[in-house]
Structures are given as structure tokens and as C-alpha cells.
Inverse folding.
């Protein structure tokens, strides 16, 4: 299937762009990848799948109404932060984090505004980082997510669930021993947690969605999740948090970003990505503790912070071969173009 | 009265610049607007009126001593953050927030240094945002205000008042019913709170001050304050906080900034400003909760954050017509120039 | 001794660069200064001296492996943040803050990764500030230090010491009277605290190290430390915190940075540096209180914040004569070049 075949279609075009938006959460500009990922969410909870669609549709529509750059809209770049913020608002205000709950009218209005704001935040962060050729990543989601999650607790019209309290390592017992489940569930759920899916099967389906577009991307995601899990085990993190994928989801994203997507894949960038994944695992714990007194979840802030620290100065290091965001497609393509252009 | 008539005067010039500085808090580069606003403060408390003058004089003088750009000084742009930081330091360290207290010698020295530092912070933030044609807004005040408010509590020589604790929605009862007072007092006090005046009459006088220079500006301020109040009521915010104008002051500023001042007024920017005002009302609550454990007030951080998120990326959206800060005068003028230049 | 004599040596070159790295913590690009400073650490604790060497070696090696700019490496600019982060991690996880403890294997691996990350953070912050001709200062250390200090507390494999709790003014009694010790110990320890040495003799040795390269630099450091101490005494800060040098170390760094190093020394910049030192003393207390609920130490964040606020906008003030970081050598040289070039 040629992946661009619906991108120009008058009606199906919008469907294509929003599916790409779902894929862009994990750097996959591919509608089929987005569809498989949505299926992964659906397996866990139809509510989350619907909410993800709502978020991506709202933020993409906002970009269209504001007359943003057509090319960026068509690549799904205005959609992925909207999808994430919608998922986060439901996840942290629902009685049951695992399945989510259908939002009230007030909550839906609130969530739609949050998703719309991510479109403006994306343009703003892209503007600020533009001169340095670094992408906004999921920072619009993290910023808007934090801002909107907190206010939730102060309005009577919105019921905050028990999970409005953050997921921090302190909530888990330290004396549970590690076992086989820790490993295969921890790694799978790490991928699932990127989309707030506390479900290891969803995680592996999402990984398949990534592989539809890029084998290297999927391999780096798996490697990153595994590194996050290994680091947490070696340094004695609490078993429950590891199995829930909390140490791994930022590591997985960092590994995908640095491992071939924003840096041409070679030995240097592979080691760089592994280093980033290790650091992300530690710093998830760090940011979780930092946010504890104010009761906010980490979201993907660790991934953004580590990746920015490691990428904004990229042109200072001649051992790395940067790929500007506007040219980043897949690790495979990035490397092919680089080798051809040398 | 020609508003520029004293700007070049050798002695009265400085008076003109500082009055413009008072007006610039609400984007009014007009000495008469500044004078009416000062009268609004005086009606509430002569102490606050004097402190406001002290702050604007110190930060304007600092700019003169450091040989800053004459044009910016003459427009009052180095003064408004100094006025606000002086007001905030008195408001949050006085026994009675409403009237303020005459500061001690140690406190006066402290306050003068804080006002002077806002001048440097203004130059720094203007430098950072320069390439993106976005103004520092009241960020110098927010930054310096937070930094200086906290240290206050640690020095024996400065007596911190009971209001050194932040104004957060939690301090108000949730079961008080809304009534007519909630509305006209809430909206008026929202304008007053921009200058830390917990007085609805002062608020309406300040609104008149704005109207002296720009009807659209005053209308947007009123609209923003009303939106903040409506949103808080619809979402069930605590009555006391709404009546005290706490949900509305950031909304009012956001509406003035986006509604014709930094964006040419048209249907798009009107909706954009309304959206910003709604979001500002929610996010005041959010930042208040964020700051609660560290005991800091929100100040106008919500307004700055929302306006920056919505403006820095402005050139990405062709539905908006940006007005660079150096050219922004009044909504009326901005629109006239734009229509003439098309 | 010609200070550049080993800089090009094939083997001793690396030693020269790392000693310069130690000196760069206090802006001294001079291996002999670095050596004297290391001696100052050794007098207090051989463990800290070794850890300082480990940190500077790791971050300098990381820069070499990543093929960073040779000139920056040779000036020790990739080393000083690594030295500081290594010292901080030991200081805040050791049973005894004063002497430090030999780290475990897990801690050593952790510390090495943190030091390596400062190299990337340095490149990133230098990139962001590049257009404004302002240096990253010790921000890479502050950022990475905070991130790594926190996670420490969450892993069983790393033992956190009692000092993992922050040094905040609240930990000290307010009723202890000031005496002669407060003064000479407070000022000396202020210099020592820059390197986490709670030892006033170390502080004065470090000052000698600075004087080896620049008399003005040493004088400004002493002046800054004295100002920090005086301000804390006048405003009634707790005696224990003053004697431990906590109010003075940020003031000392700010005074060195603004007093001749990044601004040509003249009456304006002298007053500017004094103002900065006063503000830094207050704001150390402010940031300490800000960080208290999350249990993090201030590190040198106050120095970075105040210096950035006062320098990034420097070109807006014609009363100041900026020295771009790439040309800043010593206050003496900066002034000589400026007077020659007029």
C-alpha cells in the first residue's frame, strides 16, 4: 500500500491526517501505523480509542481553522499532542485509570479546549526551537496537560478520579521481588504507557504499528523500553512501578528519537540513544519526586527534557549527524539519504 | 488634549513617562490613562497609590541611569513592571491586604532593589523574545516578584503579613451560593486585582482610565473580566474567590492583549481573545494549586503564559494578523493602519 | 610560568585542560589556578579532591569522544560542570557532608553518567544563548545536578545520606548572635561552598588560586562573599547559615562574573556587580524556600539566574561595556583590550 494514497483525497484526506497524527506520537508519519495503534488502544478500552480520536480531530481542526501550514497538517504534526492531552485528561480524572470513563459535558468542553490549545503551543514551541532545528516533541502536550490537569481539581463541575494523584514510585512497595512478569509485562506496558494504556498487550500491538512504518523505529522503541526496565531493576526500583511500565515509557521515546530519527543511525548515535534511554529511566523517578508535592504526573516530560538536552547542542558534536525535523522521515530513509548525499 | 504634549518637556517629561508606565500595566501608552488609574488606586488606599508611584519611578530611573533606549523609556515601558513589583511586595507583606501598610526602611530598600531589577529583567526578556516579535508583558514583574516575595519570609528585619500565604481557591468556602454581588463585584474587582486592589470601585475607575486611551481596550478588559467570572461560575469555582476577582484578572489582561492590541481586531482575533480569556480563567486555578505548596501567589503568570503560548507562534497561523510590539499602539490605530496598508 | 606551555602537549595537554576545567568553575582559564584550588579541596578532604578530578575528566573525555570544538575543550569549558555535578552528588549522598564518602560502584556509574550529561547540556545551553553572547555559566551543573540528585532517593542501590535534605535557612536557629567567627568564617566558607567545601580555610586557598590568574577576580570574589555576609547580617538571616557560607557563595560568583569578567571593569560595572551580589544574597534564601517542599539544594542556581537576568539584556544598556564569552579572559586583559581598542 502506498502510504500517501489518501493524503490528497478531499474527504478521506482528513482521516489520513488524523491517523498520521496518532502515529506521530511515536514519530510515525503513516496512517496505517496510526490505525494499528488505535487498534491497540481499542483492545484495552474503547473509551480511550474514542478519546484519542477526539483529541487528534480537535487539534487538527484547530490548525485548519487557524490556517496553519498545510504540509504540517497533512503530516499529522498538529494532531499528536491533542491526542495525548485528551487521553491524559481522561486517564487522570477517571475512577478507573485502566479503562477510563466517558467524560461529562463540562469535561468534554474542557478537554476540547485543551486539545485546541496544544495546536497553538505546538506553533509556539516550534517557533522558539526553529533556529536550532529541533522539534517541539510532546512538550505542547506536557505543558498543556499539566496546566489543565491541575485546574480540574478546583472545579465542582468536574469530578476528579482517584488517579488525579500522580503515579510516583512511592506508591509502590519496595519489597516485592522481581519475576518473569516484571520483564515481559514491564517492557510491553512501557510502550502502552506512552498512550496511557496500562496494558502490556496494547503495548506490543503499538509496537507492531510502529514496525509497519519503520523496523528500526520499532527496534529502538523495544530497546528503550527494555533499557528502562533493566536500569530500574539494577538500581532497585519498586517492582510494581517497573511492571506498570513507568520506568520504561520515557526511555522508549528517547531511544526512538535519538536512534535514527533525529540523528542518522550509526554506532555513535546508537550509543547516544542507549545513553539517553538509561538517563531517561533514572530521571523519570527524579521528575516524579519533583512533582509529588504538587500532585502532578510526569507525563512524557523526562523524554522531552533528555532529548532536548541531547539534541539542541547537536551541531557542537561532530561525532553526530543531525537530521533536521523537516527532513526526518524514518531511520531507514534518513540513513539512505545521508549515505547517498555524502 | 494631545497626549504627547509633555513627553518632551525637560521636567514634566519624567512625570509623563512614569504616568505612561502606570498605564502600560494595561497596555495604555497614555499619561492621562495612568493618572486616572492612579486615582483608582487612591480611592482604595493612598498607600498603594504612593507605592505604585515609587515603583514606577525607581524602575524608570534605573533605565535612565543604565542609558537604555530613550524611546522605550519615554513610552513608559521600563516602568510598569517596577510599579507592579512594588505593589505586590506591599500587598503580600502587609497586615491588611486591602489597604497595604507603609513599609519599613529595610523593606523600602528591598522594594527599591526589586523594582530596579525589573528593568534589567525587562531588557533580558525583551532580548530573548526579540526575534519572535513578542513583548515581555508582565513577566519581569512575575519573575522578580516571585523571587523577592519568598526571601521576605526568611529575614527577621522584614515582617511578613498574613497574606504572604498565597491567594488560592482552597482558602474559600465552596458552598456559598452565587448572587448579584458575585457578578458586578467580581467583574469590577477583576480589573482592580491587576493592580492588587481588592476593591470593585477601583476596578471600574481603572476601566475608565483604559477607556480614556482606547474604547476597544476597555471593552476587551470588561469582556475578559466577565468571561473569567462566567467560566468560574459555570465550572463551580468558590464564590469568595470569584467575587474577589481572582478568576478574572488574568482573563481581562489576556483579552486586552489578544483583542486588538497584539493582533489586528477582526472576527478571528475576537474569538482568539475569547478563547484565551476562557483558558486564563481555568489556568489561574491551575497555577494557584501548583504554587500552593511553596506558598506563592499566582500574580499575572497565567496571563503571560497563555498570551505567550497563543502569540509566539502567531506567524504560523494565517488567520491572524500580528502587530509587532514596536508598532502596537491602540486596537483602533492598529486596525486603521492595517486597513490603510492593505 | 607561561600558562599555555602544556596546553599543546600530547600527554600533559589533557592534564592541562582538566586543571583549567577546575579553574573555570570560578572563571579562571589557568591550570595553576586549578591546581591551587584542588589543593584547597584536598586540605578539606582527599575524597572531594579525587571526585572533583573524576568529574572534570569524565566530562572533558565525553567532549573529546563526541568531537566537540577543540578550542573549547582546551580551555576547560567542558570540564567545570562535570566537576561540580560529581561533587554535588557525593556531598548530598554522603553520611558526612563535610568530608564526603567514597562512592559505591552503582553510585560511581551514576555519577559518571551525570558528568557526561553535563557536556551535552553545556552544548545545548551554549546553543540557546549563543545569539545573545551570554555564557551557560554553571546552569548545566544546576540542571543535571537537580535531576540526578532527586532520582538518587528512589533507588535501593544508592544510599542517600542525611544531607540529601536541602540546606535551607530553616534548618538553622534564628536566635544565635553574630560574632567574629560569623565574619571571617562566613566569608571564607562562602568561597569554599562554591566547591561544596564546608571549610573556611579551603575557601581562602581557593581565593589564592583565583588570585594566581587574576587579582581583580579574587578581589571581586572576596567582595561578593563579604556582601553576601553583610546583607544576611543586616537583614537578620540565621547565624549558622551565614557562617556556613550559604548566603555568600552565589554572591561571590555573581560579583566575579559581573565585575570585570563579562563586563569591562569601570564604575558602572562595579556598582552593577555590587547590586548583583546584594540581590544574590537575598535570592539564595528565596530559592532555598522555593525548593524546600521538594527537598532540593539551591546549588548555584541563584548566581546563574541573577547573572542571566543582568547580562542577557546587556546590549540594551549603553552604560555597560559587554565582553562576549568567547573574548572574556581576565578582568585585567578585558579592560586592557577595551582601552586599546577605543
Amino acid at each position: 500500500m502506498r502510504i500517501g494514497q489518501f493524503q490528497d483525497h478531499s474527504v478521506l484526506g482528513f482521516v489520513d491526517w488524523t491517523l498520521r497524527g496518532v502515529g506521530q506520537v511515536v514519530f510515525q508519519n503513516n496512517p496505517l501505523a496510526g490505525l494499528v495503534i488505535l487498534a491497540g488502544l481499542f483492545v484495552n478500552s474503547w473509551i480511550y480509542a474514542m478519546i484519542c480520536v477526539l483529541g487528534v480531530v480537535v487539534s487538527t481542526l484547530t490548525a485548519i481553522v487557524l490556517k496553519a501550514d498545510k504540509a504540517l497538517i497533512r503530516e499529522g504534526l498538529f494532531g499528536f499532542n491533542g491526542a495525548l492531552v485528551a487521553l491524559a485528561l481522561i486517564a487522570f480524572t477517571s475512577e478507573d485509570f485502566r479503562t477510563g470513563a466517558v467524560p461529562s459535558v463540562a469535561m468534554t468542553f474542557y478537554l476540547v479546549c485543551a486539545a485546541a490549545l496544544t495546536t497553538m503551543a505546538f506553533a509556539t514551541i516550534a517557533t522558539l526551537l526553529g533556529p536550532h532545528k529541533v522539534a517541539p516533541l510532546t512538550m505542547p502536550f506536557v505543558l498543556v496537560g499539566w496546566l489543565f490537569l491541575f485546574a480540574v481539581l478546583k472545579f465542582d463541575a468536574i469530578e476528579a478520579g482517584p488517579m488525579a494523584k500522580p503515579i510516583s514510585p512511592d506508591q509502590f512497595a519496595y519489597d516485592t521481588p522481581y519475576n518473569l512478569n516484571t520483564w515481559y509485562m514491564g517492557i510491553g506496558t512501557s510502550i502502552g504507557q506512552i498512550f496511557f494504556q496500562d496494558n502490556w498487550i496494547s503495548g506490543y500491538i503499538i509496537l507492531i504499528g510502529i514496525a509497519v512504518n519503520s523496523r528500526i523505529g520499532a527496534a529502538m522503541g523495544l530497546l528503550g523500553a527494555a533499557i528502562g526496565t533493566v536500569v530500574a531493576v539494577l538500581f532497585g526500583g519498586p517492582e510494581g512501578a517497573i511492571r506498570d511500565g513507568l520506568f520504561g515509557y520515557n526511555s522508549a521515546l528517547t531511544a526512538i528519537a535519538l536512534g535514527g530519527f533525529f540523528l542518522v543511525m550509526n554506532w555513535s548515535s546508537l550509543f547516544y540513544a542507549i545513553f539517553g534511554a538509561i538517563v531517561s529511566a533514572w530521571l523519570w523517578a527524579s521528575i516524579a519526586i519533583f512533582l509529588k508535592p504538587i500532585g502532578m504526573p510526569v507525563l512524557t516530560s523526562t523524554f522531552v527534557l533528555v532529548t532536548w538536552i541531547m539534541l539542541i547542542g547537536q551541531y557542537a558534536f561532530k561525532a553526530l549527524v543531525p537530521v533536521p525535523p523537516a527532513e526526518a522521515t524514518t531511520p531507514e530513509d534518513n540513513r539512505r539519504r545521508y549515505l547517498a548525499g555524502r
Summary: The interface with chain C takes residues 65-69, 106, 110, 113, 116-117, 120-128, 131, 143, 146-151, 153-158, 293-294, 296 of chain B (CB under 8 Å). Residues 162-166 of chain B have pLDDT under 50 and may be disordered. Residues 212 and 222 of chain B are 14 Å apart (CA to CA).
